[in-house]
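Q: Given only this backbone (142 positions), what sequence would you predict?
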């Protein structure tokens, strides 16, 4: 039973990893949308005649923060790899796996909130579903 649970957990972590490239399929569309919003805000700022640089700076920072999700994708992949490596150790790793699963969840959530794109949101929901299965299965073997 333990071997079966471990196999299921590994498969679900691998499914999360396999969804990362799916996010990349929508990157150019998402980036274009962010650029359009930024250009719209820039035009709004210029047309308003309101030269409140602080507000404009806040808008720029907001869009730049939303623009790049590469770090989240890299960390998510690294956490998934670390989870599988940790699970294969010949020692008690239950708590450690729980902590890594939390980190995976954080990256998935950040990816979803930063991406703000319908198709990427669907992928994020699937990732969360697989992670939920991992957490559930982990409880059975700890």
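A: Predicted residues:
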């Amino acid at each position: 039973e333990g071997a079966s649970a471990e196999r299921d957990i590994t498969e679900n972590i691998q499914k999360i990893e396999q969804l990362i490239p799916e996010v990349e399929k929508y990157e150019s569309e998402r980036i274009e949308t962010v650029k359009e919003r930024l250009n719209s805000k820039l035009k709004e700022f210029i047309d308003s005649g309101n030269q409140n640089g602080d507000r404009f700076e806040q808008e720029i920072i907001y869009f730049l923060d939303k623009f790049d999700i590469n770090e989240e994708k890299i960390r998510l992949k690294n956490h998934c790899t670390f989870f599988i490596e940790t699970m294969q150790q010949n020692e008690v790793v239950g708590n450690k796996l729980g902590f890594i699963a939390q980190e995976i969840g954080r990256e998935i959530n950040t990816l979803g909130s930063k991406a703000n794109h319908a198709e990427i949101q669907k992928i994020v929901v699937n990732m969360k579903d697989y992670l939920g299965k991992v957490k559930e299965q982990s409880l059975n073997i700890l």
